[in-house]
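hiii, so i know i said id send this last week but things got crazy w the move. better late than never?? heres the sequnce for the chain we talked about at the cafe, plus the structure i predicted for it. fair warning i was half asleep when i ran it
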Amino acid sequence: MTIVCGKGNNGGDGFVIGRLLKRKKAKVHVLLLVSPQDLAGDAKTMYQRFLRSAGPSAVTRPTGSDTMRRRLESSELIVDAILGTGLSTPVTGLYFDVIEAINTAGRPTIAVDLPSGLQADTGAVMGTAVRANLTVTLGLPKLGLYCGAGIEHAGAVRLVNIGIPSSFVDAVGSRVMLISGTFARAALPARHLTAHKGTYGHLGLVAGSVGKTGAAAMAATAALRVGTGLVTVAVPSSVNDILEAKLLEAMTWPMPETKARTFARSGLDRLLTFAGTRDAIALGPGLTTHPETVDLVQEFIKRVDQPCVLDADALNALAGKARC
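okay and structure toks below
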């Protein structure tokens, strides 16, 4: 196993990983990208502890690109402990070369906290970035792991609790929330044994047009999958039969349409009647931005009383509107 360490706290984490794995009798080698004299603070302390545990021969400096590549390619596992969350400028020089060598080595790679070269807040690649199979992120999720290029570079993400007090986290007051499978499952209400389809609400979905019935079908299926009791899809009349063939459980509500087979402005009253007998409305998938359809959406939103979720072309219909 090769642990590639930079000079900062991320490198210090790499030394700790090496020392703990050494206790487990793992064959560990550290590739240190800076002179030991350049280490400071916790990184220097952890380096010295690793040396006492593994011996000086367990640490080498890159002496040439060929030697470095052979070292990485011969490793059963690579641990990326080069750069951490503080990166703000593009990666250059030796660090660039090492990251490129890691990516071409073809070995399983684990990144510490986040892949080196990735901007922690945006997921942007700063010149180059490690493509990890697994990222073990410490304390709290890093936004850059879940957006931009970070999604592809992080691989699987595992969050590790390192003892940060919840009071400290609450004091930061972040408005960003990570929606995980665990979070989603906890947010869904318990299903009662005596419940039936009428127990869990009736959703009205306003979606679809010619060529875009798939958007309506997927939205309806998704609503049912998360536990909605009943789903009825309002759809332009000429594509109603197509949608009925796609959906087994959801119902349909044919609507007046334009010559382009999109929702027509003349259907406003019928759409309001449709909404009035539903518990909530989802509006937007596959509507198009046909002028009549846009006008219908804007007027409908002004007058509907039910809670609404707007998506896709419903949002496009509101683009540039201060209020409707």
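btw The mean pLDDT is 94. thought thatd interest u
miss u guys!!
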